[in-house]
Amino acid sequence: MTATANNLLLFIGSYSEGEDEGIHICSFDGDREELARLSSISGVKNPTFLNVDENRKLLYAIGEGEDAEGKKAGEAVCFSFDSVSGGLTELGRKQTVHATTCHIQRDSSNAYLTVTSYHGGLVGLLALNPDGSIGEVLDVQQHAGSSVHPNQDRPHPHSSFYSRDGHYLFVQDLGLDLIVTYRIVDGKLVKHQETALPPGSGPRHLVVHGTLDMVYVINELNSTISALSFNSKTGLLALEQTESTLPRDYGGENGCAEIAISNDGRFLYGSNRGHDSIVVFAIDPLTGGMTTIQHISTEGGHPRHFALTPDGRHMLVANRDANNVVIFRVSPNQGTLSYSGKQAAFSKPVCVIPKKL
Questions:
Q1: Residue 172: how many CB atoms within 10 A of its CB?
Q2: How far apart are CA 267 and CA 315, in angstroms?
Q3: N or C: which end of the chain has fewer CB within 10 A?
Q4: Using an 8 Å Cβ cutoff, are 63 and 47 in contact?
Q5: Contact (Cβ atoms closer than 8 angstroms) between residue 51 and residue 105
Q6: pLDDT of 185-205, one tens digit each?
């Protein structure tokens, strides 16, 4: 099959050995609510997070490699892709930091890649060449410290996201209960602020509101989402509100994963692994405050990642333990989700990125 003008491309990353197909490109027909695999590629071990440059038709993936001493190390791989056939062509790969990585980010000016290493406590900054290929490692920052939860005996940076104006980089450190704000100055990561979250939170991923001066972070360890105000003049964050992602009557184990916000900024979504659900919040248009409006099953275990389609009509959820990507409909007025009855099988999917090309 090939993609059509009315279709999206869906990029899927997964847990896989290097010899297995770990990156997939699919077409998604929103009218028929159908996924069709276009291509798959092997050669990258555990490409568990992706970043897509739709304008230049480039795909960036993290991978697991080895350093000169034979120890596990992070690598970043760049591919070009064909927007019709979905075919991938590797353009190059570079070692990033001396530990495996869990997240990759690109700035809006296509000057930098950033990677975070959960196991190494590291944040890496890499240059992007003018053609989009991966350049040299410019800087690596080592976090230090711990917090109160057994999983917080050392730093665990989990993701990096830019402020709306691109001037600041927010790094969520699950091990330290901190959002560490950096500026990039002369190719270096310069620490600007450390924002503390309640002990034992475990901040994992973050989303920036499109119009309000607010950011929202999902906390893996205590199953909450925190809302923070952001002063764009000073670059400072301040904690405003924290809400549970779980129903009040749920007493089982849980760990949160992904967070997303609707294009119109009215609704916020988070995934629960254990309860295996998506929580939906309404966002107050004046204050940015959150109110819970729905919990819905993800139709599979361990929803590590999900994404809203660019038109906002659907959500695609990657359930690692169920080996499926599930299609949900999104109510345009209510923001709530409903299961479409459609899903597709993939081995251990953990990252889904839909793009309109």
A1: 28
A2: 13
A3: N
A4: yes
A5: yes
A6: 999 999 999 999 999 999 999
